[in-house]
Amino acid sequence: MPRFAASLIALAFGVVLLIGASPNAFAAEIKAYDQSSFESAQAEGRPIVVDITAKWCSTCAAQQPIIQRLAADPAYGEMIVFHVDYDNQKDVVRSLGARWQSTLIAFNGTAETGRSVGDTNAQSITALFQTALGN
Q1: 114 has which bridge partners?
Q2: What are the structural domains, with CATH classification, of the chain?
Q3: What is the pTM for the complete model shown?
Q4: Each residue of 107-119: pLDDT tens digit?
Q5: Which of 13, 62, 94, 130 is the most buried (most CB within 10 A)?
């Protein structure tokens, strides 16, 4: 087979794999907080945002579409967003030094890079996410 034809086949195969990839393949991982996963992500040096949220919190509800949009952005593909349930994970809330629901805490590995409370401004939440990337 000529080299050009082999290259075309390899390219076509790559396109098929890319098209068939999950739409979330380049998105941040969003998951419920658990200590083991959090510590593993920190040890790996991953960018992390901890979202302390409550079902009844209107500010938390306003933050969620912003967090979802950022998590879908390929720029945050290595990030993990951990949701902490304010009402049911009080020990985690205390261990993170948080006092309120609607608290967002950014980490780059083990280093805390920023935090906000009650923020619903897309630009400042984006800036907080950026700090986790080391930017």
Answers
A1: 106
A2: 24-132 (3.40.30.10)
A3: 0.81
A4: 999 999 999 999 9
A5: 130
